[in-house]
């Protein structure tokens, strides 16, 4: 099915409001999820609604929580998310980091004890809109079930642990936005494939025996997450993606203080995300106009490369902007399985789907 941005966002907002969120929180989370769909990141879009409501019912997601700063010391900040919506906590902490970077030149911030942060690129874009460069490293904790195998391993030992780097390119110009999971594909893309009853593109998955597979049921089929055998995602780029994922675990989990995904309390908390971020004022490093000219020259240089048949050189953030234009014009696609799950979740809190 295809649905307009406004209709989908209003539906999501009404669901979260009925589930206990205030109007501002419901609107923020709904807008974030729908924007992820608009930009082609369906893994981080409205398909998350049933899981969020389930987490809320289970006491693992706290409506109305805000970032509580445990440390606010010069360029350093440490915030506790209180188990709240990451879309809210992440924005609050990003805004703090932008303000502090304007004062001190750089902000180093850690987020602990937050529910799912959502699309990390949203925070990078927020920093870039304020003229700041940003780097975010995230680790993911989901009980004691692990969904990403280390390079050379046969079972899950890590999670999808995303990385995001954004660089502003000048007024009225789109920023560079590099935002990706360190697994071969995002966990949510496997969920989307499972709901749509489609295979995932190989080779990105292994089954419970460590053999390559394209069947998303190895991660989302009956019994997965209950302690039984299950498959795992592979890291992207072999040892390189594995190494970056490991660094996310160490930087966001250990250095940031929120805990790695081996912590004993993981099982009792449901999903938790921790983040270690760096927000930098480029004006402290040189003339901003000159920096932007250099960035523009680099972009022009790489895009001038002769292309392969049917190919095109796109820089970080460009595919998302194109997809957003297409989906704003033609509607957001939602597969039948995902839509059924959202409608069922909505019904559980007394909300009817759009007519």
From TrEMBL:
Keywords: Oxidoreductase. InterPro entries: Mal/L-sulf/L-lact_DH-like_ah, Mal/L-sulf/L-lact_DH-like_NADP, Mal/L-sulfo/L-lacto_DH-like_sf, Malate/L-lactate_DH-like. It comes from the Bacteria. Belongs to the LDH2/MDH2 oxidoreductase family. This is Malate/lactate/ureidoglycolate dehydrogenase. It comes from Roseomonas elaeocarpi.
